[in-house]
Specification:
Elements lengths: L6 E5 L6 E3 L10 E5 L2 E2 L6 E4 L2 E4 L8 E6 L17 H25 L32 H6 L4 H38 L20 H17 L20 H16 L9 E2 L4 E2 L8 E7 L1 E2 L6 H4 L11 E4 L2 E7 L9 E4 L6 E3 L4 E3 L4 H9 L3 E2 L9 E2 L6 E3 L28 E2 L21 E2 L1 E10 L6 E9 L22 E5 L1
Parallel strand pairs: 17-18
Antiparallel strand pairs: 1-7, 2-6, 3-4, 3-7, 5-6, 8-11, 9-10, 10-13, 12-13, 14-24, 15-24, 16-19, 20-21, 22-23
Length: about 500
């Protein structure tokens, strides 16, 4: 490959701005840069530092970059008679001559026919080769004139073939046009959304002839109407139909479903159906003892709720709120006949119940219970004096459940939910003494009216007084609460026999 003295080439990688060269120069202005066939200007487009060129703009990937030296041929050093000759000036003059020689050597390589860059094949650098003689020997180059003028040569034979092909193409074109016309006509009768010839056709719903696509769409609509229509597709009478008219397949399916539900007496949960608060529905995705009650009115969604399709144990769904379209359901266990808001005791916290322990809870978590409280006017502002009622909380987002912990239940005609404090009847009585002969009366003697209530005197000893006529008795004063109320003495404690249970409320 030819050895270039003052030129080097690169292929841009799309990121590099700085390129190095290996030749000397006298002035940075003599270093030239060509990017993709465009000559750049120094110093506005690039800078030269030592033996490196730094471009101001990164060239696009795969762009050819050539860096070369172009030394001016006019003298850099001028000599005059009688002047001093400096070695540096002589060196500079010689260097200029050397650079010009190197560049003169590079020029024909880069601009003329040479074996650059592979060192084997001649490269015309994209230019035409002119004034070439006609070929003589087998390996001579062939000129354009020779190819076009030689008798029975390659060009003439190819021209004759070309003419034959053109004639055949013309015939084929004509036939293709005819075929295309036939194709277009057939396509219209196959695909046209309107009548291909606009002729009348009484059997067509449009009153005009239709393409195969048109009849297909008509058939599709008829089939869809008879499959999915909510009303009679043709409006004809049908005594077997609930509506008295013919029905689509969808209509008959719905009629069969309605009949089945009426027969079994159950309201099966349906898709895209409106439900009101309090409506009951059953789902085959739940066991027979579970049902759904609507607590937020709305319309069910097109698909079954994800909560019904989930796989946790069924028991864990009792009391669960299920969002179904715009409807909200709560899952109930029909085996538990306890009404909403009822309080009872339990050994554990059942599903669908909340503890009656005086806690403050969110209203949004118990919408059915909140409605029950409101409907039955069971709110109270005094949760201390009415532990059995529901506190209003913040009257917006929270409320307070009753507190039955540590309380016995007393049934009364009025005042339901009021707090009753602990208490016992008072123990009362009186006793007295008499003087004289009556002091020797016996215990309980009707003649002694001074022992009343729980108090009684008990005779302990009879004696003789200081004189023969002075008789005295000794008494003790005892208390017996059973004399005041028979409940005393019937038990060793005021606590009756009991079992502790968790107070719970159905929500």
């Amino acid at each position: 490959m030819p050895d270039l003295k003052a030129s080097v080439s690169f292929t841009a990688d799309g990121t590099t701005k700085k390129y190095y060269f290996n030749f000397d120069y006298i002035n940075p202005e003599y270093i030239k840069v060509n990017v993709g066939g465009t000559e750049l200007s120094y110093p506005s487009d690039y800078s030269v530092i030592d033996r490196a060129v730094e471009l101001k703009v990164v060239p696009a990937k795969d762009t050819l970059i050539r860096i070369y030296r172009q030394t001016p041929s006019n003298r850099i050093i001028e000599w005059a008679d009688g002047s001093f000759i400096k070695a540096s000036q002589m060196t500079l003059g010689d260097l200029q001559q050397l650079h010009l020689i190197e560049e003169a050597q590079d020029y024909p390589i880069l601009n003329g026919i040479s074996t650059y860059p592979d060192g084997e094949n001649f490269n015309a650098v994209g230019r035409r080769i002119i004034n070439v003689a006609d070929p003589v020997n087998p390996q001579d180059a062939v000129t354009k004139n020779y190819m076009e003028s030689v008798q029975d040569g390659f060009v003439q034979r190819n021209t004759a073939i070309e003419n034959n092909i053109k004639a055949m193409q013309s015939d084929v074109t004509t036939k293709n046009q005819q075929a295309q016309q036939a194709k277009d006509t057939a396509q219209k009768w196959a695909e046209s959304p309107e009548s291909p010839d606009t002729l009348e056709d009484t059997e067509s719903p449009t009153g005009k002839t239709q393409s195969a696509k048109g009849w297909s769409l008509t058939g599709k609509q008829w089939a869809k109407d008879w499959a999915m229509s909510d009303t009679s597709p043709d409006g004809l009478e049908d005594a077997d139909s609930d509506t008295g008219k013919t029905q689509s397949a969808k209509g008959w399916a719905q009629q069969a479903k309605d009949m089945a539900q009426r027969n079994i007496g159950l309201n099966v949960l349906q898709r895209n159906k409106e439900y009101a608060v309090g409506d009951i529905a059953y789902s085959p995705l739940l066991p027979s003892w579970a049902r759904l009650e609507c607590i937020t009115a709305g319309t069910t969604g097109a698909e079954e709720p994800a909560e019904l399709l989930s796989t946790p144990p069924v028991d864990s769904k009792i009391g669960l709120y299920i969002t179904d379209g715009t409807v909200t359901w709560i899952v109930d266990d029909v085996r538990d006949g306890t009404p909403i808001g009822s309080v009872r005791g339990s050994l554990y916290l059942p599903k669908g119940y909340i503890k009656a322990n005086g806690a403050t809870v969110n209203r949004a978590d118990y919408p059915r219970l909140v409605k029950f409280i409101t409907d039955n006017n069971l709110w109270t502002d005094d949760v201390t004096g009415n532990l059995g009622l529901f506190g209003k909380g913040d009257e917006s987002t929270t409320f307070v459940v009753p507190n039955y912990v540590g309380r016995m239940v007393t049934y009364k005609d009025t005042g339901a939910g009021q707090t009753l404090d602990a208490g016992l009847p008072n123990i009362t009585g009186e006793s007295g003494t008499v003087s004289g002969a009556q002091t020797n009366v016996s215990q309980g003697d009707p003649l002694n009216p001074y022992d009343k209530g729980a108090f009684v005197r008990v005779l302990k000893k009879k004696g003789v007084g200081y004189t023969t006529n002075d008789v005295w008795n000794m008494f003790t004063l005892n208390i017996d609460a059973s004399r005041s109320n028979a409940i005393y003495g019937a038990s060793d404690t005021v606590q009756p026999p009991a079992i502790s249970l968790i107070p719970v409320i159905r929500y």
